[in-house]
Design a protein that fits this description.
The chain is an alpha+beta fold. Helix content is 27%, strand content 30%. The chain is built from 23 helices and 48 strands.
């Protein structure tokens, strides 16, 4: 009897097709032609033939079976791809060859009308998943050889010959068993095992939904085409979802060094910001995160990155943990990463957590989770990223000897710089390294003025004498008695003869080109009086870390702490004018020095150089090691600030310690009489949300002189209208004004300003909620300052994460919120989440500005910016008018921003948004590319102050 799959109709050889139709063949050669005769193989003979062929020959021909978007052309092997996803199924004539695992070489000839990207997929029982793809590019006709590792009992192979419409010719593919693995270089680019995508016990696939497409380049599976790419996790087994503790394992590989991934969990309220998990992932470095499902998710959305790029997801697993496992994992992480747990084991760490929880009145597990979340929060700038920045960004920007010489020859002047350095009992290695860094300067016009403050260690004088004899530019004075750092600095300053003075601590180091870049800046800004640079820290082995990429001159940030610090350079005449360093503020003597300079300089005469020119050495007792080691500096800084404001005749200013060591709070009194504030709250229905905002203002705000104007943009719900009527009758300070026109956020608020009675305007969203009662007092005290324009608040999402801490220009093409998604207790980038500071813009979700300023700049742009960026535009107009905008952490509110995400906006809304983006970019241009309160060395891809590499 014939095998059931054999052809039932006999043909002569001349009529037999070169390839049997799929319905008539099981993949083996069921007929062979030889000399015009047709041979039929019965099943046993055919199986024996396969086994011999597999064991001895180790090769099989693969038939090309077109699946989609492929059209056969005239000649043999000629095809046309009609779309961006053409597919062949590769069917082996000898499937026995693929019944065992091992390495194979897939080979065929290929020729196309232009270069193409192609992929091979392996079905191991889960279908042709994207994560099994092997990608390559073919840019010239010829032989294509692809090494494949095939697991046992592969179900099938698929070839996608192109990623776009193209005509091509392909030869018959052959699959050849390899006797040994291919070379290591080849194997690294081949997927030899499948990524595990699992949720509890269930496997799942990634379904691209927005701004993601398949990628055909080597080493990646996906491409992101915008700022908001995301997948949906296709989890078939809904029973896998659970409530309780979970460990997430994630590993990504992509074109960017780092990706900020986010997971949205729909627990019945859609995908919203309140129910999210955010993870920062370094390329090819697996990361784990412990968290807790309070409610079982119904669906999960995965945003692998923010921005354009290629990537693949190597690992994505959600594993259920019990409470003991979760607790142990979190404790291990704290012990291994947190400084205050150094030397602890998990048992001792748990006792510390219990003690802290009891002191704060919290449950132990809740406090442990909070501590864990704080230490795994979005990292600011990992040392890996900084090392990459040093190698790829800084190194490429440094001058060579010829460039330096040609620059010096072209300089209008070559200013002389006197480096002032007080010394006291410095460690020998640190002192030598410090002086050597001066000797190594690429700029030659300097002198090093050293004052030894009566050191008791004999090696200090020996080393100083040695270096003074080595180079005549090194000048040393030995003080007869110890007078502390201010007197010693003045002694060194007396030796200075240069036009400018640079300050250097005795155990720190200058970068090689520090004085060269200073000299260039002096030439570029001949009227400037003060210069300062970025800085980092350096350990005993010379490793650089923790770079501080600073803001340009930021007066209110400076009043909050000494962010200027090093490398500071001053005109010598200016220092002579103020009498040098002041005795009595030791510990903050540099801070006091600059404060006393401020009355004699204009803001434009203080120049920031965005380069790391100074290295703080991390040694015992150094401020670089731990600010807590010099707690006395906080008191010295407070004295310096108080004296500064007293000497300027500023009345009604109170200076106190800030929220962290070595930071300060400068409070200003409210004018008498207290100005009336008009708080404008646009809304349409949504009574429950708006009532929370209004009620929290009425119940919690200690500032008394305000009115609330609810701008009703067409509410129709009876409940809302009844509430409007009731609240106006019950509370005289609340008014409801109808605005019956199409929604236009700018126009609504401009309309409200026309009806405002107050001299201060507050733009307030209807979904905010007051946290601290003095929020309005703080904002009014700042907004009443003559030089201040718009004032913004610190806003949190409902889960306590940061929603707004000021606006950074340039992020996302226009602007983004600083420190977005950071933990509420996080200090921020060099403490900026705890400091009053000047900022380019603040959000209109909670913004205060004097009415006269608002009207003078034309208010919000209701013609070009009806929805987005109108607040940024307003702030930039205010800044352009000569005012400084300001953000304060002492005004705290929730911003319950929970609009569902993941839904496609209408084409009309997308077009409107693009138009507003284009308007902002055209109007503000360079201002969006350089935010003076940010730093060009920091990223514009994220809002976390990470390094831009």
């Amino acid at each position: 009897m014939k095998h059931a799959d054999e052809p039932r109709v006999r043909r002569d050889a001349k009529d037999a097709p070169a390839t049997l139709p799929h319905a008539l063949s099981d993949g083996a050669p069921s007929l062979q032609r030889n000399g015009g005769m047709v041979w039929y193989f019965f099943a046993p003979a055919r199986k024996l033939w396969r086994l011999i062929h597999s064991a001895v020959v180790g090769v099989t021909i693969l038939e090309l079976l077109p699946r989609q978007q492929l059209e056969a052309q005239g000649g043999a092997g000629h095809w046309k791809a009609s779309g961006d996803d053409p597919q062949f199924r590769l069917r082996p004539r000898n499937p026995e060859l693929m019944r065992t695992s091992g390495w194979f070489m897939l080979s065929y000839t290929f020729e196309a009308e232009h270069p193409v990207a192609m992929q091979v997929f392996i079905d191991c029982g889960e279908g042709f998943e994207e994560n099994t793809a092997i990608s390559l590019s073919v840019d010239a006709p010829g032989q294509v050889d692809i090494p494949l590792y095939l697991p046992k009992n592969v179900r099938g192979l698929r070839l996608d010959p192109a990623s776009a419409a193209v005509s091509f010719r392909i030869g018959t593919p052959r699959l050849v068993r390899l006797r040994e693995a291919p070379g290591q270089a080849v194997r690294r680019s081949v997927t030899t095992s499948l990524p595990q995508y699992t949720f509890a016990h269930a496997r799942f696939l990634l379904k691209p939904l927005h701004q993601i497409s398949r990628n055909m380049n080597e080493g990646a599976h996906w491409s992101s085409h915008g700022e908001d790419p995301y997948f949906r996790l296709d989890i078939k087994e809904k029973s896998a979802f659970f409530v309780g503790w979970c460990r997430l394992d994630l590993a990504l590989h992509g074109t960017h060094r780092r990706a900020d991934a986010k997971f949205y969990f729909d627990t019945g309220n859609g995908f919203n910001e309140a129910e999210t998990l955010r993870i920062s992932v370094l390329n090819d470095r697996p990361v784990q995160r412990i968290f807790r499902f309070v409610h079982a998710p119904r669906a999960i959305r995965f945003d692998p990155m923010q921005g354009v790029g290629d990537f693949r997801v190597d690992t994505l697993r959600f594993e259920r943990l019990d409470e003991t496992q979760a607790k142990s994992a979190m404790l291990r992480h704290l012990v291994s990463t947190e400084a205050d747990f150094a030397g602890y084991n998990t048992e001792k760490a748990l006792k510390k957590i219990v003690t802290e929880a009891q002191a704060e009145g919290k449950r132990t597990l809740d406090h442990l989770l909070a501590r864990y979340e704080q230490c795994v929060d979005i990292p600011l700038s990992t040392n890996i990223a900084y090392e990459e920045w040093i190698e790829s960004v800084e190194a490429a920007s440094l001058p060579d000897k010829l460039t330096i010489q040609s620059t010096l020859d072209a300089m209008r002047s070559t200013p002389s710089l006197s480096i002032v350095m007080p010394v006291y009992n410095t460690q020998e290695a640190d002192l030598r390294a410090c002086i050597d860094s001066v000797l190594a300067q690429s700029y030659p016009h300097w002198e090093l003025c050293i004052a030894d403050d009566a050191s008791t260690k004999p090696h200090v004088r020996r080393i100083l004498n040695e270096y003074a004899q080595k180079d005549a530019r090194i000048r040393v004075i030995y003080r007869p008695q110890n007078g502390h750092i201010s007197r010693a600095s003045n002694s060194a300053l007396e030796l200075a003869s240069g036009e400018f003075v640079a300050l250097l601590d005795h155990d720190d180091a200058l970068s090689e080109h520090a004085l060269y870049f200073m000299a260039r800046a002096i030439n570029d800004h001949p009227e400037a009086q003060i210069f300062y640079s970025d800085e980092d820290k350096i350990d005993s082995k010379g490793k650089r870390f923790e770079p501080h990429f600073k803001s340009d001159w930021n007066p209110d940030l400076f009043y909050s702490h000494n962010y200027v610090s090093h490398l500071g350079v001053y005109r010598r005449d200016l220092l002579r004018r103020i009498g040098g360093f002041r005795v009595g503020v030791e510990g903050s003597q540099d801070y006091d020095l600059l404060l006393r300079c401020l009355p004699h300089v204009e803001a434009a005469q203080i120049i920031h150089i965005p380069r790391v020119l100074y290295h703080w050495r991390m040694v015992e007792g150094s401020t670089a090691l731990a600010s807590k080691e010099k707690n006395y500096t906080t008191d010295a800084g407070i004295k310096a600030l108080r004296d500064h404001f007293a000497e300027r005749g500023s009345e009604g200013i109170r200076v106190s310690a800030g929220l962290l060591p070595n930071v300060y709070r400068v409070q200003r009194l409210i004018p008498v009489p207290a100005p009336l504030v008009s708080l404008l709250i646009p809304t349409r229905d949504r009574k429950a949300i708006t009532e929370v905002a209004v009620r929290s203002i009425l119940d919690k705000t200690t500032y008394a002189n305000y009115e609330i104007i609810i701008l009703d943009n067409g509410s129709v719900e009876p409940e809302t209208l009844a509430w409007f009527d009731a609240i106006q009758r019950g509370i005289k300070s609340v008014r409801v004004i109808r605005y019956d026109h199409p929604f236009n956020y700018s126009a609504i608020n401009n309309f409200g300003v026309q009806h405002a009675r107050g001299s201060l305007i507050g733009l307030i969203n209807n979904d905010v909620e007051v946290i601290n009662p003095n929020w309005l007092t703080e904002m009014v005290s700042q907004a009443c300052r003559e030089d201040i324009g718009c004032v913004g608040a610190k806003l949190y999402y409902s889960d306590g994460k940061i929603q707004h801490a000021g606006v950074i220009l340039g992020i996302g093409g226009v602007a983004g919120h600083a420190h977005k998604y950071f933990n509420q207790n996080h200090h921020g980038y060099f403490s900026r989440l705890k400091l009053v500071q000047n900022i380019s813009a603040v959000t209109a979700a909670c913004l205060l500005v004097r009415k006269e300023i608002y009207e003078a700049v034309g208010g919000l742009d209701e013609e070009n910016l009806k929805v987005a960026f109108n607040d940024v535009d307003l702030c930039l107009k205010v800044r352009e008018a000569g005012y400084r905008n300001l953000w304060t952490p002492y005004a705290e509110l929730y911003h319950h921003e929970s609009v569902s995400r993941g839904k496609e906006d209408s084409s009309e809304k997308q077009a409107r948004f693009r138009k507003e983006v284009e308007f902002m970019q055209e109007k503000w241009g360079e201002s969006l590319r350089h935010d003076p309160y940010y730093n060009p060395n920091l990223t514009l891809e994220r809002e976390d102050f990470s390094i831009g590499v």
